[in-house]
Structures are given as C-alpha cells and as structure tokens.
Amino acid sequence: MYRTHNCGELRLTDAGKTVTLSGWIQRIRDLGGLLFIDLRDRYGVTQLFINPEQHNALYQQAKAYGREFVIQVIGKVSERSSRNPNMVTGDIEVIASDINLLNASITPPFTIEDDTDGGDDLRMQYRYLDIRRDPVRKNLLARHQVARAVREYMDGKGFVDVETPFLIKSTPEGARDFVVPSRLNEGQFYALPQSPQTFKQLLMVAGMDRYYQIVRCFRDEDLRADRQPEFTQIDCEMAFVDQEDVLNMFEGMVKHVFKSVRGINLSDFPRMSYADALKYYGNDKPDLRFGMQLIEITEIVKGRNFKVFDDAEYTAAIVAENCSEYTRKHLDELTEFVKRPQIGAGGLVYIRCATDGTYKSSVDKFYTQDDLKNIAAHCACKPGDLILILSGKQHKTRKAMSELRLEMGNRLGLRRKEDYKPLWVLDFPLLEWDEDDKRWNAMHHPFTSWKPEDESLMTDNPGAVRANAYDVVINGVELASGSIRIHNRAKQELMFRTIGLTDDEARYKFGFILNAFEYGAPPHGGIAFGFDRFCSIVTANLDYIRDFIAFPKNNAGRDVMLDAPSDIDLRLKNDLGLK
Amino acid sequence: MYRTHNCGELRLTDAGKTVTLSGWIQRIRDLGGLLFIDLRDRYGVTQLFINPEQHNALYQQAKAYGREFVIQVIGKVSERSSRNPNMVTGDIEVIASDINLLNASITPPFTIEDDTDGGDDLRMQYRYLDIRRDPVRKNLLARHQVARAVREYMDGKGFVDVETPFLIKSTPEGARDFVVPSRLNEGQFYALPQSPQTFKQLLMVAGMDRYYQIVRCFRDEDLRADRQPEFTQIDCEMAFVDQEDVLNMFEGMVKHVFKSVRGINLSDFPRMSYADALKYYGNDKPDLRFGMQLIEITEIVKGRNFKVFDDAEYTAAIVAENCSEYTRKHLDELTEFVKRPQIGAGGLVYIRCATDGTYKSSVDKFYTQDDLKNIAAHCACKPGDLILILSGKQHKTRKAMSELRLEMGNRLGLRRKEDYKPLWVLDFPLLEWDEDDKRWNAMHHPFTSWKPEDESLMTDNPGAVRANAYDVVINGVELASGSIRIHNRAKQELMFRTIGLTDDEARYKFGFILNAFEYGAPPHGGIAFGFDRFCSIVTANLDYIRDFIAFPKNNAGRDVMLDAPSDIDLRLKNDLGLK
C-alpha cells in the first residue's frame, strides 16, 4: 500500500496519526539543518518535516532529492508551529520517520508552478509535466465536472447516450473530411465524422425518442488559433418536438450546468431574431453584457454635402457613455482599430457631446451644432457621451461596428468575465450565397427545415427563407447551434437541389437518410454544443480553450509530444494500396 | 406540442383525462366496424379505439393507415372493457377524437416485431427500422444503463474522465493500425488509437492519479464473427497502487454494475493463477459455473501397451456425472466433436462407470477392471458417471479438453445464462514465443511489468517470467484485462529489447513515454474492460454483441446501411497526395 491519505486531506483533527503519503516533491527547503519538503499530488500539498537531530540518516538521504522526485513518506501528523492559512493543509505537517524514493526525476524543462517559465511549445512537448501545474489540472477536472452535470441533466430527462460510429462514409458538405483507407476494401475509404448529424436523425427515425452523446468530431480545416482538428461536441436530438420544446429543454441544461458546476443561477434567456441581432449588435452572437446598441442614422446624416454619408448604403452610430473627454490619442487608436484589414472600415467619425451641451465632431465642416444636436438626440446621447459613427455597405459596416462596439466594451471594462448574459438567437436564414461557387449553401446544415410560411420563397427568393434554427449565445460566444430538421423525403430532396446537388449525387451521398424518411420518420430536432468551449465559458477561462484538452494539437495540426502525424511502415502502406 | 404523454405511461388512474399521444402504428384491427390501433413509441404501446358511430370521418381516415405510419392522436383515456394483463397500459385505451397523420410509411422490408422475419443483412441495411424492435432497443437502453453505473462508481471513487486524442501516432504492436493521411503534412499519417494505453500512463505521470474513459478504439484486423473494427473500452488507470489495490477497486466496479443494472449481488471473486487455470480448466478463462475439472492421468495410464497413452506427453480426464448410460450415438458425437479441425484431437477414450460397480471402456483391450477402477478412483468418479479422456501434447490436449468440457457443460445444462461466476486470473506469463517471427511477444502489452522475483529470468528464460497482469473472467468470457505497468525507463527499454525492438526503433515509436519516465513517473497500473462485451454479459445476451452497437459493421468491415467504406472525391484524394 502506497499511502493511507492523499496530500490534500490531512487536518488538525488528524494530529497524532501515523500516516503514509506518496507524491511529488514540489520544493525542498533546508533551513539551517531543518528540512522542509512540500509534497504534492492531485489533491493538494502537504508539508513534510525532517529533523536531522532525530533522523540524521533520513535527513542526509532527503537532502539529495530534487524537484519532481516521487517519494513515499511515513510519519506522524503534527500541529505546525507557524500555520499557513493559504494552504488547506496549512495547520499541520508530517514529521517524517521514513522515506522511500519511488522514482527520481531529471530537472524539468520548465517550472511546475502556476506561472511557469515554459513557453507554449515546450509545455505542449512535455504536456505530462504541464498537466501537473494547478491551472491545467483544474481545467481538466472542471471539464469532467461539466460532463457530469450534462449527463446528470440529460439522463434525468430520459435521453439515451447512444454511441455512433467513427468509421463512416465521406459526404463532405462544408469542411473537408479526414479519411481512413480501408485495407479490406482496397481503393475505398472511411471518413471520420464531422458530427453524428445523420446518425442522430436515424436514431429518431428508429424511435429512440431522446438521444445525446458527448462525442469526438473531426474537421480537416486549415487551422487557425485554437481551432483543433478533433473537438468534442455535446450532441442531442429529440423526436416529436417543435422549436419551443427544444429551447426549453436546453435552456434548462445550460442553467443546470452553471448551477451545478459554479453555483450560478442564470436568469431566463432572452430571445432575439437573427435580423435584430444584426440590426442592434452587428452580428449574430451579440454580447449582451453591455448595451451600446447600433443606431442606424443613414438618412439623418444625408444632405449636408458630406459625400461619405451621402453615398453610404448604411450609416450607424454607437454611444460610449461618459467618453466625451476621450483624447486625440484614444480616438486615433480607435480609428486605427477600425481601419485594420480584418475590420476594413474606411474611417471613423466621432461626435463629442460635451458636458456643457456643445458638440464637437470630426465632421464639423459639414454639420452645424443643430445637426449634431439632432443626431445626438436620435442616439439618446447624454452630455458627456461620445458618439462613434461608421458608414458604408450595410453588411460590412455592421460587422465593423460590432467589432468597434466590442472593443469599446473591453476598453470600458463592460465585458466582465463573471457576468453571464445568455440568449437565444432565432430565425436564421436557411441559405447563404456562396460567391466563389455561385450557389446557395445551407447556413446551418442541409438537414435544417424552414418556416412553413416561407415555403413559397424556396423557389422565388431562397435567400429570404428563414430556417427553424437557433443558437445559444453567451457573452458574444456561440455555445450551441441547432434546428428542427426536415423529416420528409420530398422536402429533403428540394433542399439538396437548392444547394446544387443533383438527384444522383444526393442519392449517392445521402440515400440512406432519404430512404429512412420514407419509413415513418417522426418530426424531430436537436442541438449540438461545442464542449471544449462550454467548459471554457463555464469556468470563465475563455482564452485558454486548449488547456481544457488534455493532449491538444498545435496550430499546424501536429501533436508535438508524440511527433504525429508521422511516416508509417512501408508494409502498412503496401497493405493499404498506397504507393 | 406533439404529446402530453408517451405511449407507456397511461394507467387506470388517468381514466377520464384528455390526452395527446404521438407514435408509430404497430397494428390496426378492424373488428366489424370497431377500429383498434396499437400505437407504439420508445416507452410502450397504447391501444387507441375509434368508434365509427361516433366519428365516422375519423374511422374512414384511420382505416387507410398502415404499419409504421406516424400519427398524433387526441382522445380520452378510458377503462378497457377487456383488460390486457400482458401490457402495462393494458387496463386502458384512448378513445380517439382526432388524429393527425404526421408521416406515412411504405411497407417495411421486415416486420417490426420481437421475432422478425428479417435476416441479418436486411436488418443491418435498415438498421433504423431494426432498432424500433423491442430486443434491439432494449439492448441499447441497457448499454446506457451499464455506462451510467460505471460512471457512477468511477466518479464516486474520484476517477477523472479525461478525453485522449483520436489522431495519434502509428506505433503498431500486434494488430494493424487504421491510419489517416494528413493534408497539412503531406506524406505523413495519423493513426487511430488501438487503445489509449500510452496516454493513460502519461496522465499518471502527469499526476491525474485516477483516470477513466469510455472510449472508442480501433483495430484493423482480418475480421471474424462479432469482431468489430471499432469497439468501445472502459479504460482505467490509477497511480500509487499495487496489484491488490487494482483488483479490489475493479471487483467493486463489476459488482456495482451488476447490482445497479440487474439487482444481482455477485459474491467475492475467487482468484486463480494462469498456471492453475490451464491445469484445471485447460484455458485461461475458465467457466466456473460448473466443475468437471481436468484430471491429469498421464502416468497412471501408461504401461498397459496402449501406445497412444504410453507415448503421450499428457493424458487427462474429465468426469461427466450421471452419464454412464450415454448411448453409442452420444459418444460418437463427442468423438466427432473433438476430432473437428478447430479442436484437433486424434480421438476420444471413455470409461463408463456403471451403477453396478463395473466398468466398460473403449480401451477394454488394454485395461483390466482393476485398472479402470484405479483410474476411476483417481478421478473420484462415482458409479453412474462417465469418464472422458484425451491424450497428446500437453498444450494442445488441454485446449481440446477445455472445449470438450464446455461442450459437456452445454449438453448437461450446466452453463446457465443467469448464473454468474466471476474470477480473477493472475500471474500470466509476461511473454509468449512467436513461431512466425521467431521472437518474443508481450502477452498483454509491452508496458506490463514483471514480478520482481522473476527479474533474473528476463535474460535467462524469458518465457518463464510472470507478469503483474490480471484478467476478469466471467462464465468463460474475458471481461477485462490489466496490469501493473513499468514506470522506469531502463526496465521499459529492457522490455522493448526483449521483444525485438532496437533502441532506435523504441525511441522513434515510444520516445515520448521513455522520456516521460525520467521526470518522476509514479508507480501505476490499470485495467480495460471490453464495453460491448460487458453489456452483453450483464444482460445475459452474450450471443448478440452486435445488437449492443447501434450501427455495427458486418464481418467484412462494411456499414451496409451507409455503404461505407466507399470511393472519395478525386479532389480530396489530390489534396491528400494520394494518387
């Protein structure tokens, strides 16, 4: 037996007990002959004490140990002379009477501390040491907590965890598939699932009624920061439901997770149409932790010979409260910000609403005090506030305005980590136009149904058709996305045709689900949560999604610890018919 | 809202309520104008009743419906005139006042009933209809129950569910890897994990202390019946443990699952060495539901001029109680059985111990009544019993005897499905000789440690080294397999060398774990359960492992529903650098 207790559980009430602990040496301090060792395991840190006057051999032995050595210690729990209130075990120490060295350690390439000196690459290469650090370990433990809370809720609601296959058929729509060459069927390939979408729908056709799975998904995308080629999804589907049933069920799930993991009571989620989200926040995942809504002023500002506004399809303002005293430097920074290529605005117009009731703007040449007052009134701008204005094509300007709004939110400290503002975004467009391929794409995915009242638009004006689709957004981040599905073969075929699949292609790729719809497919719908992101949102650690993944890949899709991907055996290549 | 209740929950106490149900039509009976519909969903079946005198239009409408149509019905719960005690909802029916057709169905290719007329291939092709059948649905629900019970136990014991990667490095030992060509790293490949073995060990090095995962694994083997290319494993690992700790922890887990899912209290698992398992049962996964142990009689039967026994390395008997009256036909069948190529015995010798105290054997020519009496006494054979004897090379004869023993167990009804006899098999050999490759192979896997007292044999006599390895066996089936691992670089390198890896190969394939062992690796060990098999054992449905998998592959590794594997896009092939 390696231990009677772990390194996080001994308290003053244990004083006098003889215990055995095992763990890693966090640090050793030799205070003029008195040796202290901080012994660490997953559960905490306990201080060991060796008195050379009592145990000189032990003292000599232990003095030679280094950081991250693994030892087993036998000793007596004793009250500390100077307690450490910052440690839960800080009231006691263990007076060692025997120590066994279980394993030595060479010097780690970075310090095993909260603020490590290890860079990202080094930490990933020695991930097994990185995970010993408190912040990473806590994130992995939190991930398990979130999964448990999700399962608790779903199990309680009668959802069945059904495992769907990983070796499936390649039917790429959108992202690229990872594929797996088949040895037994030479020249043929399996694909790894981008999501279990069709399987969960088949489970509804199969009468499973309520399904969920916390499941790995794969997308072979050109990688960007914090986008992993494999990621985990909480995948859910229900039969005999309309949109309202799904929203209620999963709003309940999110609330349960926040309550269970963080003790946070989320209030009911407001609902906003996609159109309103774009109108008031400039994007479809608004951060509702602060107001600063977009105010359209396209017409109000026309007719004053300011060509930019006169020619603009769309002009909008946001009001930054109490910012009328922003310096030239601040305003220049904001102008630079909106002109960055990722944002792409041509420039920024401001109006200072001074506390004395006067106005000062970057377009004073064109606008009188009355004009400015009129604009300010339209924006409900108070003395002391600052109006920021962008102008141009509507879609692009809204996006730029959204970025400016979020930047101002950051600058003004309005996006507090611990402040949670969830909402439902509803009524997404069914389709979006793909300029490159000159065809319609499914905005959500091609299994999403549309509003019955928009049916006639499917042929007349596909871009105007609204989907039965919904997103959960929290603090400007898309947490989940779902829809009521098509469950009728003719409608599904119409959808495939609309996005440019020939009937032959549709049958070849999706024949199994088209067939399934002919055998009594029930109405059904569902949702999928990004699990990695969910964990990072619940724990308010949004910036470190990668640290919620035990063994992540880098931005080039490589596992630098394993050194994968790599060459494979020539024999294996031959078996697979690869040259 | 599609329903107020499901089809399994209405009882007599609900009589008088107006309810809405949705589901599939199991069958329609038109009894001279009175129409009865059995409406089915996941939760049960409820009888609907339509009286044409009250609702003639409804009657005409419903009469046209067929099997597997999906309908929504509104009606009043009413006590049945003739109750059906075989249905939980059999006391009531719903008198329909309105029915909406939600979806029609063409005629299913097989009947949706417990005993379907659909063959295996058809059922797999239309798996979404097959799952509507009670037995398959119940197996999938049971699988979820088993998973929940496992998680409940593991969570309660402080194990952390950590997700390990699926896109890893190819390091085949034993079975072939499935590989995934990398687009971003042309010419290189990821592999799909055969198990998360090295990751769970790295998590122990990382200080996670207790890990588990219910995880998909992949093996590209030449397929046999009920061997799937992807399968699910309950994967577990613990740090700071010796073998005894692991056995206790996971014996507890198995007991918890049986108790929780089936209400069955398993008694403590007996323990048996690998050597004893072979000696007494002829194989390393003995079925302890019945005795009939192998009794070696090699020496006792020599010296009577019966050349077969005189020349044999090994001769053994089993005693079939009360079978002395077995007919010639029975004995011929058994002889044929042992002579089948899969078993490969040369022949079968029997001794009938008649109730009158005389003996009759197939080798009477060589053995006197006293000889036979002597053998019978050695076998503790009673009057009325039958002795069956095989002879030859020890290993092969034991295997054949094991098969004969199991066959006799079947014939005598001694292998009762509901009778559970678990045990631990311990002290496996570390290595086994590979005749084809002329080298030692790891019997469990190359991360398994050996008994310290056998250390010197590693060079002198590798085949005699005993591993710190253990299996859970229930009713002759291997449920789980595990070991205490090597946690020391030098020992791991010795192991790799012993199984024929050069130091360069070892570093190339397993450098990451060899390195990890230098940074304070704790002693650790674990176990992995075959989850698909676990489900089938717990539910006593051992013959249908495939029906615990929602979408299984056939024996050629194909998903006949999806028609996968398949060709892939030429563009995708080009992107991957595949010709």
Overview of the structural elements:
2 copies of one chain form a homodimer. By secondary structure, chain A is α+β, with helices and mostly antiparallel strands. The first copy, chain A, has 3 domains: 12-103, Nucleic acid-binding proteins (OB fold (Dihydrolipoamide Acetyltransferase, E2P), Beta Barrel); 138-272 and 422-548, Bira Bifunctional Protein, Domain 2 (BirA Bifunctional Protein, domain 2, 2-Layer Sandwich), CATH 3.30.930; 290-411, Gyrase A, domain 2 (2-Layer Sandwich), CATH 3.30.1360.30. Chain A has helices spanning 56-63, 120-125, 127-130, 134-156, 197-205, 243-262, 274-281, 307-311, 328-339, 369-378, 394-411, 457-460, 489-498, 503-516, 531-538, 570-575; strands at 18-31, 34-41, 44-50, 70-79, 92-103, 160-161, 179-181, 189-191, 210-218, 230-239, 271-273, 295-296, 314-320, 349-353, 359-361, 386-392, 422-426, 431-434, 439-442, 469-474, 477-484, 524-530. In chain A, the strands form 5 sheets. Chain A has an 8-stranded mixed β-sheet, sandwiched between helices. The model of chain A has no long low-confidence stretch (mean pLDDT 95). At the A-B interface, helix 3, helix 4, strand 6, strand 7 and strand 8 of A face helix 3, helix 4, strand 6, strand 7 and strand 8 of B.
